[in-house]
Amino acid sequence: MTGLGEMLDEVVEDIDAVLLYTQDAGTFERFDNDDTETIVVATENAVEADQFVALPLQFNDLDGRIRYGLEGAMDADLIAEGDEVLCLTTFMDGGDIDTIVRIRADEFSHTGLYDLFVNSRADPDVVRDVFEVAIELGKKGQKGKPVGALFVVGDAGKVMNKSRPLSYNPFEKSHVHVGDPIVNVMLKEFSRLDGAFVISDGGKIVSAYRYLEPAAEGVDIPKGLGARHMAAGAITRDTNATAIVLSESDGMVRAFKAGELILELDPEEY
Amino acid sequence: MPIDVGRLVRRLFSEEAAFTVAVSILVAGALLSYLVWRWVHSLFERTGMNDAVEGTAFERSVSRFGTSTSGIIATLLGLFVYTLAIIAAFNVARLLDYEVFWTQVTRNLPRLFIAVLAIIIGLITGDKAKIVIKERLRSVKLPEASILGDIAKYSIFYIAALIALAQLGVATTALLVLLGAYAFGLVFLVGIAAKDFLAAGAAGIYLLLIEPYTIGDEVRIDDKRGIVQEVDMFVTRIETDGEEYIIPNQQVFRSGIIRIRS
How far is residue B3's CA from residue B25's CA, in Å, rounded to a whole number? Predict the structure, then answer.
């Protein structure tokens, strides 16, 4: 077993920081007194760590989780480019830490995953709530059938001016915000309608039934995605909005910002 | 009247009988105070008071002495009952110059009891208020905001002390005046500080209900022209290229709004 031990020692040698994906106080305390910097990454700062990066979603894929943690820690200047970082996290479902990943902070390409949540025009909470609605909708569908939906979040004034109504706006003079308990049900019903949902920076659902008319030149999204994704990519290039799309054909939730695909999630995993 | 009881027993029976009565009063008093003690404990348990006082400084410092708030209050009540019994017993046995003593005690003992109770309740509610306010302001990550909790805490302490002192017969008029001035100042200052907020809120309610303009409309307020991005209770956000105006709602109301249709 010495070979294995040496290998492990090599992996954890000379690291600058530890990204600890845990909410367990006992695990945290074991690291807290160490010399290396410990940064806790979790949905909630349950262990009251000084250095903390908040996850907006409990990313189920390792890649997204590590990426988000690294970008978040870099954004908050907790780690610098070129730092050797050790990520301790969970690979399979279940609470205990079972995975060690060593990575250099500038080794991966910056996808803007962290910026998508934190540095969007809309409030981070609003972006997260819309994601949750989209995931929920993707999981359950409408009466068992898969549905598609397009949410345009933030910069609502401009989005409204670059779109036109397909029918009467059911949200006119209503004051419904994403995150209100009633919204899940309402959106599920309205997702039958064509067109996009427009949501303001503060989370107010401004309109449904919008036909987006952005200039689509120069939008580069992966081939094989349909008109809904194209519209989402184009509107985010034309405005400062973020678009979150639930695909009707493959059931994936995708997020676009500045005309680019940033995040792809499978609702079934959440 | 206990005095009459003593005299009655003495006249009907003998000096020894009076003494026996006194002793039995003592025993009954002990029993009664124990019952009161038990009753308070179960009352605290049943009404969930134990959970309510959990975490206050008073509860914590009391529990360091191995007891709890319910224990303190129960003991206090029990002592109160037992003291009454002792006094009654002394009375019957004629061991004291009770004439004076009795009047003094009957006047002062309940007051003392209420004063102590007021202090305890004041300490607990003060602490509790601080904790509740702190919890509320948890999302506001501002250390200065915690002063609100302290203000509430010490205000309640002050009022409790005032009640206690008044019960003990200390002249509290000056302190009362101080309290009045303090309360007035608080209301007055908060009123002045929140004046604009109230005005903006009133206008905001109208704007939200009637929606004379909505997100996406192009409008002009005074000389600020742009696209409405957000309307909430207090402010309207209007944006042009590179500039965002955040206009308090009462100003929207005062200077009117021009919707631009083109």
Answer: 14
Listed by number, the residues of chain A in 79-138 with a beta carbon closer than 8 Å to a beta carbon of chain B are none
Domain boundaries, chain B: 1-96, 111-193, 213-259
Q: Do A157 and B227 touch (CB under 8 A)?
A: yes
**CA torsion sign, B87 to B88 to B89 to B92?**
positive
The residues on B that touch A, with CB distances below 8 Å, are: 208, 211, 214-218, 227-230, 232, 237, 239
Shortest CA distance to A134 belongs to which of A265, A262, A242?
A265
pLDDT exceeds 70 at position A253? yes
pTM beyond cutoff 0.95:
no
Among A9-23, A122-136, A144-158, A220-234, the least confident range: A9-23
- C-alpha span between B192 and A219 (Å, rounded): 53
Contacts of B201 (CB under 8 A, 6+ apart): B233, B234, B249
Q: Is the dihedral of CA A210, A215, A221, A223 positive or negative?
A: positive
Residue A157 and residue B216: Cβ atoms within 8 Å? yes
User: Which one, of A162, A154, A152, lies nearest residue A120 by Cα?
Assistant: A154
Q: Quote the CA–CA distance of A37 and A53 in Å, as a whole number.
A: 13
* Chain B residues within an 8 Å CB radius of A206: 214-216
Residue with tokens 């990313």: A59
pLDDT of residue A242: 93
From A177, A71, A167, A165, select the one nearest A116 (Cα to Cα). A71
Asked if B228 lies within 8 A of A157 by C-beta distance, the reply is yes
Q: Which residues pair with A80 in a beta bridge?
A: none
The DSSP call for residue A58 is: -
Please check the confidence at residue A216 and state whether its pLDDT lies above 50. yes
A174 touching B, CB under 8 A? Answer: no
In CATH, what class is B213-259? mainly beta
Question: Which is nearest to A99 in space by CA: A71, A69, A128, A135?
Answer: A69
C-alpha distances in Å from residue B25, one per residue of B8, B14, B30, B79, B88 = 15, 17, 9, 15, 7
Q: Which two tokens stand for residue A77?
A: 């200047």
Per-residue pLDDT tens over the stretch B19-53: 777 788 888 888 888 888 888 888 877 877 777 77
Segment B73-108, tens digit of pLDDT: 888 888 888 888 887 777 777 665 656 666 777 777
CATH for the B111-193 domain, from 1.10.287, 2.60.40, 1.10.3860, 3.40.50: 1.10.287
B45-79 residue pLDDT tens: 787 777 777 767 777 777 776 677 777 788 888 88
**What are chain A's domains?**
2-114 (3.40.1380.20), 120-269 (3.40.1700.10)
**Interface probe with B: pick from A50, A204, A240, most Cβ of B within 10 Å:** A204
Dihedral sign for Cα B90, B94, B96, B100, please. positive
